[in-house]
Design goal:
HIT family, subunit A, five-stranded antiparallel sheet, binds zinc ion, alpha+beta, about 20% strand, binds adenosine monophosphate
Length: about 130
């Protein structure tokens, strides 16, 4: 059973922020910050890499609209947009979804830390482009 498919079908209650034929946006039950919202496709895809391009474009267009609405009406100063992809990246519900996390100040109850590494950038580029 996929918990988000059950929410989409209406079998599990949710607080709906937006809905159309292709997507559903709901308040995240954890409310990491006030207004934390999840935007998901109605079709079940385990992660966004599996989504057809047109469905992903629609999803992300709506993410922008909803992020504007949420940040404006909740008077947030910014937001983080996150797609956790696979367990290694923190994905716990295997039905792809985009987190909109409104930000009020730098001490909000969310920790994102970008640490530095000394990798060889040229070697990485070659690998990404499939040249080795
Ligand atoms: P992720 O770790 O990226 O897979 O995020 C899953 C998110 O789903 C978490 O932030 C949970 O708080 C949220 N979540 C789990 N169950 C529910 C639910 N029934 N209603 C709303 N949000 C949920
Ligand atoms: Zn699902």
């Amino acid at each position: 059973m996929c918990i988000f498919c059950e929410i989409i079908k209406g079998n599990i209650p949710s607080k709906k922020v937006y809905e159309d034929d292709e997507i559903l946006a709901i308040l995240d039950i954890s409310q990491t910050t006030k207004g934390h919202t999840l935007v998901m496709p109605k079709n079940h895809y385990e992660n966004f890499l599996e989504m057809p391009e047109n469905e992903f474009e629609h999803l992300m267009g709506k993410v922008q609209e909803i992020a504007k609405q949420v940040t404006k009406n909740l008077e947030a100063n910014g937001c983080n947009i996150l797609i956790n992809t696979n367990a290694v990246a923190g994905q716990s519900v295997m039905h792809t979804h985009v987190h909109i996390i409104p930000r009020y100040d730098e001490n909000d109850t969310i920790t994102l830390s970008f640490k530095e590494n000394e990798f060889d950038l040229d070697q990485i580029l070659e690998q990404i482009k499939g040249r080795n």
